[in-house]
Amino acid sequence: MIKVGIAGFGTIGRVVARHIEASDLPLTLAAVSAGDRTRAEAAMAQLQAPVPILDTAELVARCDVIVDSAPTAAFRDIAETTLRAGKTLVTVSGAALMQWPEAVDLARAHDGRIILATGALLGLDAVRAAAIGTIHSVTMVTRKPVKSLIKAEHVVRNQIDLSSLTAPLKIFEGTAREGAVAFPANVNVAAALGMAGVGPDRTRLEIWADPALERNTHRIVVDADSARLELAIENVPTDENPGTGRITALSLVAALQDLVSPIRIGT
């Protein structure tokens, strides 16, 4: 039985916990950590079998696998503690991982492992396969409802007024790496795409605020010597956090299932 710990018991972490409880696979929820202990205790009371709420060091010591669903600012502390202990880290924080490439060396040195789940994206298997050959270009256009972007760091820092927007507005254009710096909590999908394909510096990204949208949407075009890929996804946002799609937590659950399932679908 693999003991799973969840670092960050918010919107995503609670969904992962419920799915672990309902699973008949050899996975068990051993503990969680949380920035807001009071809210975490209230959420924990809703589980069938409540588990301890610990700090990061205690969480890692007690568990085999750590699911990172904490805010981006906490990523490095969680990742470093997990990897130094030789444990497995499952995360969707592609932007944070891209900005800290030393994490891979740390995992290698301590026999740890990093699993970057697909999150709110699709087609990463095909992009990874295309990267074995030659990829000529990768572009991604992200369009989000205003409510998903109004608190984004780039928007606040540059005083971009989205409150009275009546038409789509392009608020960013650049590389996936530049996007990860400008929107550390909003472009994990672009970071993951960059790392899976031609690299974040050659992956082009546009971000639009669109008042007509209700869902976070991504359109990706990959031109390679093996195939031309056109991928589109419309993610249903969570009620608690409009910037997070419901499928993000489910991708973490799927990654956990892959660790123990007798069959794995996809590369």
UniProtKB/TrEMBL annotation:
It catalyses: L-aspartate + NADP(+) + H2O = oxaloacetate + NH4(+) + NADPH + H(+); L-aspartate + NAD(+) + H2O = oxaloacetate + NH4(+) + NADH + H(+). Residues 8-116 form the Aspartate/homoserine dehydrogenase NAD-binding domain. The gene is nadX. InterPro entries: Asp/hSer_DH_NAD-bd (IPR005106), Asp_DH (IPR002811), Asp_DH_prok (IPR020626), L-Asp_DH (IPR011182), NAD(P)-bd_dom_sf (IPR036291). Specifically catalyzes the NAD or NADP-dependent dehydrogenation of L-aspartate to iminoaspartate. This is L-aspartate dehydrogenase. It holds the Pfam family NAD_binding_3. The lineage of its organism: Bacteria, Pseudomonadati, Pseudomonadota, Alphaproteobacteria, Caulobacterales. Its EC number is 1.4.1.21. The keyword Oxidoreductase applies. GO terms for molecular function: aspartate dehydrogenase [NAD(P)+] activity; NAD binding; NADP binding; oxidoreductase activity, acting on the CH-NH2 group of donors, NAD or NADP as acceptor. The active site is at 218. Belongs to the L-aspartate dehydrogenase family. It is an enzyme of class 1 (oxidoreductase). NAD(+) binds at residues 120, 188. NCBIfam families: PRK13302.1. Pathway: Cofactor biosynthesis; NAD(+) biosynthesis; iminoaspartate from L-aspartate (dehydrogenase route): step 1/1. The iminoaspartate product is unstable in aqueous solution and can decompose to oxaloacetate and ammonia. The keyword Hydrolase does not apply. One of its GO terms (biological process) is NAD+ biosynthetic process. Keywords: NAD, NADP, Oxidoreductase, Pyridine nucleotide biosynthesis. It comes from the Bacteria. Residues 166-253 form the Aspartate dehydrogenase domain.
